Structures are given as C-alpha cells and as structure tokens.
Known about the structure:
Elements: H1 4-8, E1 11-12, E2 15-16, H2 19-27, H3 34-42, H4 44-55, H5 66-69, E3 82-87, H6 95-102, E4 107-113, H7 116-124, E5 133-137, E6 153-159, H8 170-180, E7 181-192, H9 197-200, E8 207-209, E9 212-214, E10 220-222, H10 226-235, E11 239-252, E12 257-269, H11 293-297
Parallel strand pairs: 3-4, 3-6, 4-5, 6-7
Antiparallel strand pairs: 1-2, 7-12, 8-9, 9-10, 11-12
Amino acid sequence: MSSAEPASIAGHVARVLTVEEVTRLQKDKIIVSDFKQSKLEKEAEKNWDLFYKRNTTKFFKDRHWTKREFEELLSDTAAEKKFLLEVGCGVGNFIFPLLEAGGDKSVFIYACDFSKRAVQFVKDHPSYDSSSCKVFQADITNDISEFVPMDCINVATMIFVLSAIHPDKMVQALINVFKVLKPGGFLLFRDYGLYDHAMLRFEPGHKLSENFYVRQDGTRAFYFSIEKLQEIAESAGFKVVEIHYVKRETVNRKESICVPRIFVQAKFSKPLSPPEIHLPERPVIQEKDQANSACLEAKRCNGNANDRIDS
C-alpha cells in the first residue's frame, strides 16, 4: 500500500482531504506557547471589542436563513408568549431579521455578547425595541441568571459562538445555557466544522491545540467534529435531537476561487426530567441585588415582558 492511499481517504463524510491537505496538517506541529495562550485568554474580550471597532456593523451578513433551518424559530398561534435567548448576538444580524419577520409581540428575545461594543451597536440600531428585546454584555462561561430567569427560555441559539471559547470552558458555557432553558426547551446550534476551508488555511504558528487556532487579530476558532460536539453537549446535560455536517461552497471573488465550507449544525433539548449535572470544580458565583428583582419575579417567564427589561 502506498503512503498516498491512507491520505486519500482522510477526512469525514462531508470533507475528503487531498494528499496535500493531509501533509499540511501533519506538518503543522508548532503549538503557541503557554504564555501567549494565557495572554489570549485574558485579552479575549478586548480582542472582540477591537474586532467590532474595526468592522462596526459591516462584517457579518444578516442571517435570514435561520428560520429555514430551524422551524422552532417560526411564529406559532399559541397564546403563550415565547422567550428566546441568543448567545453571541454580535451586532444583531440574527435578532433583527427575526423580529422584523415576526411582526408581532409573541416573542421576547434576550440577547448577549462578550463584546460591550457589539452590545452597544445593537442598542443603537433603529429597530431595537426594549419591549421585545433585552440585550446585555456577558461572558457565557459565567452564570447569566442575573439577566435571564432560570428555566425561562423556550429556544436558545448559539450561531458561530462556542468555537470562540477555550475548549476547557465549553461544557460550562453550555451548562449556563442549559440552566435558563425550560425543560423541553431547545438549543439551536451552528458552528465551524472539522476541515473547514478556514481551518486548512492557517499557517504554522497559529495552532493552540488540536483543532483550535488563533487568527491574526487575536480571536480564536475551534473546528468541531460531530462526535466532539455531541460529547460536549451531553456532558452539559443536553439530549441530542439531531446533529450533522453542513457543506456549503463560498465564492471568493477576490481570488476567483470557490472554497468548501464545512459547518456543524445541531439541535439539542433539555430533558423534561434532566439528569444530574456535575459542575466543574471552578465555582460559579451568582450575584443578586435589588436591581435584579424584576428578573427574579419573572422566573417563570409569565406576565408583561416589560417587567424583565432594563430601565
């Protein structure tokens, strides 16, 4: 058997690697130093703030595809108000198309982002309405019940978010989402998949760990296999409803090439009788004060949504 034969079948169901791609990955053995990795972790929020300072609201396109991919986002005729949480809202490319398409007040959206600058862009958007949306800055690896009542959310979304978090903190991030979901609620997920074109383009010196890389601007990206994503979700207590790779082709007009993009897409649910979740040793501190009383009173997400928004 020639040495090229194993390489010719390397990859997964959505992406078969060429011999050249396998060789490139095998040669990329340089791992960023512990000192630099620690610095990147400490400066993660600053790096995302700088990203939005440079790109403002012009980098990401509005995500009109989400209703097509996730039927749970479609409006229904139920009298009960629906509560959504978007983790990693950026500048509002998901929430504003959703609110504009809805045209009613049957949905209230909580939205958060790591970047204070991104959150401010959302608040400054002409379509931002505090009667139907509450946006706040938060690190999802920490408890968010200060902002969102426990067992409150019908549907949560994480669209290209978990990949930016250090792998050691991914389970805790999902646990924090799990805690605010109602039993039977859903987490809708899409992120970068293993062997995505962007992963294969990293030059040596950008690798932080297996499938985890740092970009030139200091932001980071993890590339998921469906097996790894399932392991993380189940460790946080979720039940996997569906999970698969999504293959897209993106035209790079500048370089006149068509590149294969690989994403992972999944739907997770919070069981009606959730299993006991073993939290990591890192303590989670919940701070509650009088200013948070409105959120606490709305723990079951009933009543007027205006009672759960900032003044």
